[in-house]
Amino acid sequence: MFFSLHIIAIGKVQNVFFRATVFEYAQKNNLVGEVKNLIESNKVEIHIQGEKNEINKFINWLKSNPNSIKIEELKILEKQKIKKLNFSNFKIIY
């Protein structure tokens, strides 16, 4: 069983290599999905899927403000169990 999350990270998350940091974490931890900047300069959108344990570790990692990134609010808009992954890899959307 896998989990799928739709997340909005708000704070100092643009122009600080946040998307690249999320990409590297996802690659190392067998997570799939995508990350992209939103029009608002302080928001990044993340769609991420993987095993429950890895998803929970990812959320905790985000809450730790990795690499001096300042996440002020983490909105989990959707969390659901899924039977199969909808993404084959993790990518940064430009």
Walk me through what this model shows.
24% of the residues lie in helices and 46% in strands. With 94 residues, the chain is an alpha+beta fold. It has one domain (2-91): Alpha-Beta Plaits (2-Layer Sandwich), CATH 3.30.70. The protein has a 5-stranded mixed beta sheet. A hairpin with a 5-residue loop joins strand 2 and strand 3 (43-51). It is globular.
CATH architecture: 2-Layer Sandwich
E-strand count: 5
Distance between the termini: 30 Å
**CATH topological fold name:** Alpha-Beta Plaits
Q: Using only CA atoms, what is the Rg?
A: 12 Å
Helix content: 10-25%
Task: Give structural attributes.
about 90 residues; alpha+beta; Alpha-Beta Plaits; five-stranded mixed beta sheet; 2 helices; 5 strands; about 25% helix; globular
Protein topology:
Blueprint (H helix, E strand, L loop, with lengths): L1 E11 L5 H11 L3 E6 L5 E9 H12 L6 E13 L7 E4 L1
Task: Produce a short descriptive summary.
The chain is an alpha+beta fold and 94 residues long. 24% of the residues lie in helices and 46% in strands.
